[in-house]
Amino acid sequence: MNTDHRISRNQKRTSEEIYKQACKIIPGGVSRNTIFHQPYPHYISHANGCYATDINGIQRLDFGNNMAALIHGHAHPDIVDAVIEQIRKGTAFTMATEAEVLYAQLLCDRVPSFDKIRFVNSGTEAVMAMIKTARAFTGRPKIAKAEGAYHGTYDFAEVSQTANPTNWGDINQPNSVPVANGTPQSVLNDVIIFPYNDIERTLAILDQNASEIACVIIDPVPHRIGLMKGQPEYIEAIYEWTRKNGALLTFDEVVSFRVDYGGAQQNYSVKPDLTALGKIIGGGFPVGAFTGRSDIMKVLDPRENQLLFPHSGTFSANPVTMIAGRITMEMFEKDAILKLNILTKKAIDQIKEAIKIADVPISITGTGSMFRLHLKSNAPKNYREAYQTTDTRLLINEMLDYLFLDEKIMMINTLTCMFSTVMTQKEIDMLSQALLNMFKRFKSQLHSLDK
Ligand code: PMP
After folding, report:
1. Which atom of ligand 1 is nearest to the CA of 67?
2. According to a count of CB atoms within 10 Å of the terminal CB, is the N or C end of the chain lower?
């Protein structure tokens, strides 16, 4: 074996040096494009609470929280202790664990629409299994989803996630646009695309495929579309449509579950039949779950005469994730959520004030413990309005670099912040001051972009 590029544990390397090696063996040097950065990504040393320290010892305030996955910040002592205790006993077994059952109970007790639940390893897997459950139950092939919505990387779930003005087509009949080259035409044919929060168009599009749709997937606060809430009338209209047409209403709450004690679904009068979860429910470890009505989840039950959806996974419901997740969600109780959401609202108010002071064309969308900035004075209402042109993208990248390098603040690459319960007024003040500095610095570019 060629060991030339191996290094000793004590050898200190720069991020640039590590990345150079990474590029030789990993495409683009990264396993997830979300952390890709030119000329090279910065490598982490360690993190604690809401601060992350890179290998050069530079500490940054972290509003990324691993893409919304860490609700209590980094290395929360209660989670760390419980996980270490479990790791000493073993990490994965060819036997059932009580940890799985205890966590399943907690989540099912917490949310009225969660009758039965199964755990998997990622949000992608959760959405995939949720779609397959809906297909198995209804015996129908098609799914319907909102243009621009991110639901992970399952072939069907990712259709039109990156649709752009050259290929998205007429808003009355959006095209099913593939993300990965080579996506089978048959996949595109089985995914119906509708414009988010647009009742009339959505229902007209669903009607055209009424007898073939297994489920309509809705993210009640879709980050990539623009982080705007699903309007209650919209969600209710889709729910009614599914009741009339024998389809299921399925929610992707992989991100939005943090919004309230019972997830974002708590705030609607209608309930989804199935829900996909991920991110925060893993307590910092890889996770996904899909859950919902007992009669539907029966398709997964191996005790049934006919098993309609055989489902398994080597690392599903592994005890480390189950224990980390349970402790995380026990701590994420009603008071903690209220406090966190109030703090986020305060941050939004302070940032709105900074926007006013700097006099820049910036708007904010979001709810609960998350918000997103848009480089336009009027907040977008749908994917096409929120769509970032190349010029917008370039400016956002410059702004993110400024925040990262000069202000020592990390945000998600859409200019989104995900708050954690370990943040306080101090961190909110640091964020709003840094953003004020940034708005002032980029003021003329922001105005030329908004013309
Ligand atoms: N659904 C939504 C709404 C997401 O934001 C994501 C991840 N960003 C996923 C699904 C997929 O989750 P994962 O990255 O864990 O596969």
Report:
1. 8
2. N
Residue 151 CA to ligand 1 centre (angstroms): 6
Q: Ligand 1, from 225, 279, 321: best to mutate by most atoms within 8 Å of Cβ? A: 279
Percent of the chain with pLDDT strictly greater than 70: 98
Query: pTM for this one?
Result: 0.97
How far, in Å, is the centroid of ligand 1 from the Cα of 67? 9
Confidence at 10, pLDDT banded by 50, 70, 90: low
What domains appear along the chain, each with residue ranges and CATH number?
42-71+333-450 (3.90.1150.10), 77-331 (3.40.640.10)
Q: Which atom of ligand 1 is nearest to the CA of 287?
A: 15
What do you get for the CA distance between the two ends of the chain, in Å? 58
Q: Over the chain, what HEC string results? A: CCCCCCCCCCCCCCHHHHHHHHHHHCHHHCCCHHHCCCCCCCCEEEEEECEEEECCCCEEEECCHHHHCCCCCECCHHHHHHHHHHHHHCCCCCCCCHHHHHHHHHHHHHCCCCCEEEEECCHHHHHHHHHHHHHHHHCCCEEEEECCCCCCCCCCCCCCCCCCCCCCCCCCCCCCCCCCCCCCHHHHHCEEEECCCCHHHHHHHHHHCCCCEEEEEECCCCCCCCCCCCCHHHHHHHHHHHHHHCCEEEEECCCHHHHCCCCHHHHCCCCCCEEEEEHHHHCCCCCEEEEECHHHHHHHCCCCCCCCCCCCCCCCCCHHHHHHHHHHHHHCCHHHHHHHHHHHHHHHHHHHHHHHHHCCCCEEEEECCEEEEECCCCCCCCHHHHCCCHHHHHHHHHHHHHHHHHHCEECECCCEEECCCCCCHHHHHHHHHHHHHHHHHCHHHHHHHCC
Atom of ligand 1 nearest to the CA of 222: 3
165-190, pLDDT tens digit by residue? 999 999 999 999 999 999 999 999 99
- pLDDT confidence bin for 429, thresholds 50/70/90: very high
Residues 275-298, mean pLDDT to the nearest whole number: 98
pLDDT in tens, 70-107: 999 999 999 999 999 999 999 999 999 999 999 999 99
Is residue 5 scored above 80 in pLDDT?
A: no
State phi, psi for 397 to the nearest 5 degrees.
-60, -40
Q: What is the mean pLDDT of the chain?
A: 96
* Average pLDDT, integer, range 265-288: 98
